[in-house]
Design a protein that fits this description.
extended, mainly alpha
Amino acid sequence: MPPLNTSQCIQGSLRRQAAIQALTRSFASSTSRQAIPPESPKFIEVPRLLQRQAPAKSRIKGILPVPREIFPPGSRDKTSAEYLAVVTPDPTAEKDLSQKDASTVEYVTWKARQAASRRQNLREGLLELRHRKRRSDRQLAARSAYRRAEHERLIRQPEREDERLTNPTVTQALRPSKTEILADPDHEARLAEKRARVIERDAVKVEERRHALHSLYMNARGFITTEIQLVAEVDRVFNDIDQWTSAEAQGHSVWNLGAPETVQQKLSKVNGTGKNALEYYRGYAEITTRREARIAEELTGGKK
């Protein structure tokens, strides 16, 4: 046998170690870290909860309709023979099928069987529903009677032995008060104050209602009552050319009138600190006129 060189010896030893590792079983139950690739979510160990997550309840879409009351209180008896005879009348006359062919006779006979089946099902259904309602009413009445009796029994039961024996050692301060409502020396004064407050609130409501009625009466002169007034108002409101026309351009856009005033410009007008010479020397006559008009509208209920 020829001697082995160094490389062959190293390769043989590596193969033996790999075979031993493959045949050897590790004591740990978890997977070896080397067998989990980096792209796996288990590559990083995250502690898990010992308790499982609560199962989520499945959402049932839709709602069930409210069942209709078939036997409402005070209604007629729907299980009587007269009512069943009205709602499920029997056929008054039999059809003459002597001159008909076999298919027609079979079809008419099948329709008669279906009608008889519907009549029988309606009669049996009403009787069964009446029996079921009476049974449920009896169960409900029995349950209510049992609860009332149990309530009365618990109220009227005698004192327990341990409470009777320990009651002499309980001080009067720890006992419940015998009076349900504590005495109030200022009872009459509080009632009088509440009565006055209620009267004042009612007077405010009456005044607001009177003011609203007066405002409605004063504004009724501007109500649209005819078709001619409606057409004229629509033309006036939607006539953009007349509303948006300025000295520079014809009215096709609201921006022809310029940008709206800012808060700073409005304050400058009121305080008289604007940059415009006309507004600076105009004074407070216009502002006072608008304020007087607003006060008059508030007092009279009308609109200028």
